[in-house]
What does this fold into?
Amino acid sequence: MSQNPTAMSLLRRSWLLARSSYNCTNHWTSFAHTHRRPFSSSKKLGQISALKDLLKVSEEVADALATNKPVVALESTIYTHGALGNDLDLEGIVRRNGGIPAVVGILGGVPTVGLLPHEITRIVEGSPKKVSRRDIAYLVGMGIAGNKINGGTTIAGTMILARLAGIQVFGTGGLGGVHRGGHESLDISADLTELGRTRMAVISSGCKGFLDIPRTLEYLETQGVLVSTFSDGRSGSVDFPAFWARDSGIKSPSVVQDEKQAAAMILAQEKLGIESGLLFANPIPEEFSIPRDEMNAVIEQAVSESTQQGALGSENTPFILRKIRELTGERSALANKVLVRANVERAAKIAVALSQLTAGESVQPHSIKKQSGFIPFESENNPFDEMKRETETTSQADILVAGSVAVDLSCDYVGEDSLEHPTPHLHTSNPAHIGQSIGGVGHNVALAAQRALQIPKVRLCSMVGDDLAGSTVLSSLRASGMDTSYIKQLSREHYPASRTAQYVAVNDANKNLVLGMADMGIFTAQSFSEYWNSAVKESKPKWIVVDGNWAERDIRAWVRAGKQNKARVIFEPVSKEKSTRLFCKEKGLESLGVFPNHGVDLITPNQYELAAMHAAAQRNEYFEDPRWWETIDAFGMRGARDRFVKITSVDMTDAGIPQQAIQLLPYTPTIITKLGSHGALLTAVLRKNDPRLIDPAYDRFILSRSFNDHPEIGGVYMRLFPAAEQVEDIVSVNGVGDTFLGVLVAGLAQGGKVENLINVAQKGAALTLRSHQSVSEKLGILRGELIAAAS
It folds into this structure.
């Protein structure tokens, strides 16, 4: 086969693909497969247009490809024609390892990359066909003709569609191969020929163990396919695996040590434009493998019975697999589940490593330049140049988080006397478990929003230094799938004193914070720049979250930028000291604004931060502003103590919590005060036309009604939400409040109401309480509940 002499570089190809992946109602991919013969520009454009009309790519996958996030293709026959049950959680495995899953299949005649769960269900329940290369055009053509057929794609079918979408890594179970006696019957799986012609990295546990492994490897060699087996710490040559068994007795053509090496090979294949696949064999975990001799005996019996009963062609493999399962007493089924999960996990890690490798070379789409030898087409009038202008995607985001990202150290006291004396001793060294992670309030909020709903586009605006910690932070963010395009890395040349932020938490034996030390100087040493203004303008976010780590002037600048671009603004106080920055002395700063012309829409303090903010507002004479008095008078707050006690409690009222919230309300018309195990207190201004003012179901939460002539204010709403659950098995308190806000803003970005989202946000906080990480990896389980609450 001839190869395209002007093959695209990986990044140019991915970008061009992503730039042409959107139309008015759907997200579609462009033509990304390298053409084998040169042809006219008009023909090129025709094929591009045709593919846009045929191939559907989910919004999440298209966005991931456009921003160099790690993506892993998954076949759909494992759902439609497999016998492993529905508890594999392959998509969850990809996400937990930092990747974006892309299940491939044909839904109603439409080839789709990035099937959603309900779409997979529709395919499974719709009498799906098994789809290999030969079947794709048939099903899609029937769909065009009005006969909507569902199909589960095999390894070959998945490779084709995933490659057209621009995906490079595919995790699966076991590859097809040359059947025993295949030299006479020519029974050879289409998987092998597909690897010979489609550039895709396939991670599998070798080929099915009952196949002719030596002839399979020989056939792959003829097809020009790289075959390499993970050594898993073994030295020298290793065996090519035999699916259920780690060893086949046949040496692997080559050995790969780790995911980074595999990613480097994928990148090399892409940059060289070699149009054949790569097979990375991942041996089944040793504890679940079945010894080779034992498995060979089972296979011989299964193959013999299939021959005796005439199970040939497409019936052969299913018959043998059923017989093997029967003969091994379900051991083979368990091994099958384990190996496919292990392969998908390894595929995700390879995709992350590939994303990291390409990140250092990547050029931002707006500044892509032609590089010698890596130009899509040699033409003065390159059709992709015009397409690039016509299909330019925006960097629009649902949520923009402006805040800190830091390297976190968590020190948990584990002294011998911790049961009687849980607090570490002062003025001496204490034994501890010390863990390191990437944290920072802004990072945690953004990550929680992303993990909770997985749909909203979340961007973090932050800064790191040009140091080892900064590089670690950027690598970690990319590995987690977060967009780093608005993370500024300050050069040592221009900002010599700018170190990446770090935070040290010292916790007692019960995981409660004893002392926190934060080096966040990088966020107060720099002034709000036009760069950040541009970030807000480009992103057009629905919500901006600003944390208190910024300097006072920068907090006001973020608020101003948000309001100028019609975003709603949340302020997260961070700590008692930093919470006061919102109510600073206003000399030379733009006014904070009073309802209904307020700058900040929502704040989320705990009770101590609320008290500190109230004290700062009082100290700096915010309560002397005539506009504040006008708003307070409109609340109609006469004789409110009894109502405070009834809605909250005597203790909360005596502590001044509801009173402080009311007095800050003119500046921030929605306040959620986090009360730990006591829940959360919502206090909000109601406009005159708010239906809750006249709905009897809400009467107990109406603190007051306005009876004066204020044009906007209808009353005040106050509601205490009990804790969603009491958590006994606390692992860490770090990031709990940030998780609460991240889940909340994810729901708000989908149009949800604050009062409907608080309980879900509390459940997210509880998940983080049980997690070693600052944001629980399990937040995705709240997705359905969050969507329901936001609807």
